[in-house]
Amino acid sequence: MVKLEFNKEKDEWEILPKGTRNRGIYLDGKLKEKLDNIRMIIEKNWDAVFMVDGVERIGKSTLGLTCAYYLTDAKLTINNVCIGATDAIDKLEKLPDKSLLLIDEGSLVFSSTDVMKKENKQLNKVLNVIGQKNMILIIISPSFFNLSKYISVERSRFLLHCYADKELNRGRFAYFSTNKKRALYEIGKKNFNSYRKPQSDFIGVFRDFNPLGDEYLELKKKSLMEALREPERPISQKIKVSWRRELVKRNLESEEKIKTIQLANLFGVSKKTIHADMAWLKNNN
Question: Please, what is the average pLDDT of the chain?
Answer without folding.
Answer: 86
